[in-house]
Design goal:
Helix content: 55-70%
Largest sheet: 8 strands, mixed
Distance between the termini: 43 Å
CATH class of the domain at 241-458: Alpha Beta
Structural class: alpha/beta
Oligomer: single chain
Shape: globular
Radius of gyration: 25 Å
Number of strands: 10
Strand order of the largest sheet: 4-3-2-5-8-7-9-6
CATH topology of the domain at 241-458: Spore Coat Polysaccharide Biosynthesis Protein SpsA, Chain A
Mean pLDDT: 86
Length: about 600
């Protein structure tokens, strides 16, 4: 098949399924809703900024933001005005009844202002006792982080979410992992601080940009340094625990819905990988109510296979999770590999992934999903996967903090899969939910960056929008379904550190386009020279640190061609932010909250030797 034919086929694929938009949990969002929200946000922001700059509220807010107490220094951006403007604008255009959205807005704004008032009262007490106020820049950054976190938590609490399902927890090395993370973070801070203190043209230039409102180049370098050290530890630990001579039989399960265009090629790649393996390979193709020739094409490919023992199983109930759960029941081997129907694995993918199960603590192993190439988003996607799966995922594995192993390629220990329970139905992110639950049992989830495979990338804007809105909703669905882990007594690094960070990051991404607009408005309404430096600061942080980490990821994974996709990747990051905003708009707001409850049991997971 030549690239032109392949591109034509990719654009013609009917990508929607029952899993795209779970019934009752989300609604369709017009492509005009986000622009309308941003227009409203812009109007609210400009009016408030103009009133502040005119001195209208100086008698109450001399800092020209909703700040109730005196601080030292000045702030870069009126972050509280920005947060409140976004809360109100989002609530106007969110999904759900008007009464529910009014309650949501009131709850968000009042809680945020109450927290900010508490910060200001604490500063006033500190000032009266010691005569030294807090720096305003530091407090405003803290207020911004609170604004992000509050938005995500309120979506989980008041949005239509999957029913909570108690997460069983097993014995884990949480304290050791927390101490490891703390030690690596301390080393990263020392190295970053040392570099930031050096006198060189590059460092001096970073200081002149007043990164993050004046915090400096040391903070700018901290996260890249942290993840670099974590990556090194994670890769070394994986290499030590894996065994090249370890192998085991595997059952490969492939859920399929209307995949006649690709399922034959997927099976041929699985068969080639099976010939590379010295153990039996069982193949189960789960035809989930396909309306095309998926079942026949799959059976013909199985009949032509040389190394796999396969069959097609029909699952009438629509939904990928139903197909997966049936497949898990049918699978007979101690390792179960889930592969999407549009995934083509390398000849050594299964062999390399199995080697990691020499360590009895390993519960699930993923790989790096490379794009097929030639599509509209493929070059940007290549940078994204090298960064996320080839760099961040191994780094998170260093302190057992990896939550999601994508279902495109996920090799499970069968016993862990059965202990964690069935795949969740009627939600987005059933693969992340499963790997999270396996990890909470005490198993280790990792991504082996050696395991490469080709996975389909949307070839049209409509398909990309559908995919990313589905993916970004999954963060909230997984969190809501695992609510008890946020408040139980377990010190799980995933539940207490990584999952809250994922929520915070989702809110930050949804609010990224508005903050850029707000920064521009503040620049235009305030003629002070400091604002020019602040605007340069914002651009440097949004582009500089991600560019540095992306460069590391490309070099470490030795995918040099990805360097050509860096400009497209930054445009793609902006598009992702837009889709994240649309994704949260698709979550239906409810009139009543669903509080987080606490419940915990400790169980010891079994292992398969």
């Amino acid at each position: 098949m030549n690239p032109t034919q392949d591109s034509t086929i990719r654009k013609s694929i009917d990508y929607r399924s029952i899993d795209s938009q779970p019934e009752g949990l989300s609604v369709k969002v017009s492509t005009m809703r986000a622009p309308a929200l941003l227009l409203t946000f812009g109007i609210l922001s400009v009016v408030q900024l103009w009133l502040f700059q005119a001195g209208t509220f100086d008698w109450l807010f001399p800092q020209r933001d909703y700040v109730f107490a005196p601080y030292s220094g000045e702030h870069s951006i009126a972050i509280r005005t920005y947060v409140i403007s976004f809360y109100i604008s989002f609530s106007i255009y969110a999904s759900g009844k008007i009464s529910a959205r009014i309650k949501f807005a009131a709850d968000l704004v009042l809680r945020f202002l109450a927290i900010c008032a508490l910060l200001d009262l604490t500063n006033s007490a500190f000032l009266s006792l010691l005569g030294i106020p807090y720096p305003l820049t530091l407090v405003q950054i803290f207020a911004g982080l609170i604004g992000f976190a509050l938005f995500s938590l309120m979506l989980v609490e008041r949005g239509a979410m999957p029913e909570p399902k108690h997460v069983r927890t097993g014995e884990q090395e949480n304290l050791r992992m927390f101490l490891r993370f703390l030690a690596i973070a301390t080393i990263s801070g020392f190295i970053s601080g040392f570099i930031g203190s050096l006198n060189s043209p590059v460092i001096d230039g970073m200081r002149e940009l007043t990164l993050l409102g004046g915090i400096g180049p040391g903070v700018f370098l901290f996260l890249p340094m942290l993840f670099l050290l974590l990556y090194i530890v994670g890769v070394i630990e994986r290499a030590i625990s894996a065994a090249k001579d370890f192998s085991a039989p595997v059952s490969v399960i492939v859920p399929a819905f209307n995949e006649e265009h690709i399922i034959g090629e997927t099976i041929r790649h699985i068969d080639e990988a099976a010939r590379h393996l010295s153990e039996p390979v069982e193949l189960l193709v789960m035809d989930n109510g396909s309306q095309d020739s998926t079942a026949k094409v799959a059976q013909d490919a199985i009949d032509a296979a040389q190394a796999v023992d396969g069959r097609v199983i029909h699952v009438a109930t629509p939904g990928k999770a139903f197909a997966l759960n049936r497949a898990v029941e049918e699978a007979k081997h101690e390792l179960i590999l889930r592969i999407d129907a549009d995934t083509q694995i390398n000849p050594d993918s299964i062999d390399l992934a199995i080697q990691n199960f020499h360590d009895p603590h390993i519960g699930v192993v993923g790989g790096v999903p490379l794009p097929p190439g030639g599509g509209l988003f493929d070059r940007a996607r290549l940078v994204e996967v090298l960064l996320k799966h080839g760099y961040y995922a191994p780094a998170l594995s260093a302190f057992w903090g990896l939550i999601g192993v994508p279902g495109m390629f996920a090799l499970y220990r069968a016993e862990a899969l059965h202990q964690a329970g069935p795949f969740a139905t009627g939600m987005n992110g059933e693969d992340t939910d499963m790997s999270f639950r396996i990890s909470e049992l005490g198993y280790h989830a990792i991504v082996d960056q050696r395991v490469k495979y080709v996975s389909e990338v949307p070839a049209t804007v409509a398909h990309m929008r559908e995919q990313r809105m589905r993916w970004f909703r999954s963060v909230y669905h997984v969190t809501a379904r695992a609510k008890n882990t946020l408040v139980n007594r377990s010190l799980s690094v995933r539940a207490k550190l990584v999952l809250p960070y994922m929520l915070l990051n989702s809110a930050r991404r949804a609010m990224m386009v508005p903050i850029l607009i707000f920064g521009l408005f503040q620049l235009l309404t305030d003629t002070g020279t400091d604002n020019v430096l602040v605007w340069q600061s914002i651009i440097a942080v949004l582009v500089g640190a991600p560019a540095l980490v992306a460069f590391f990821a490309i070099i470490i994974n030795r995918e040099w061609i990805a360097l050509l996709g860096m400009p497209e990747y930054f445009a793609f990051r902006a598009l992702r932010a837009w889709y994240t905003l649309e994704s949260v708009l698709s979550i239906r707001i409810r009139g009543s909250a669903s509080p987080i409850t606490q419940k915990s049991t400790i169980e010891r997971p079994g292992t398969v030797q």
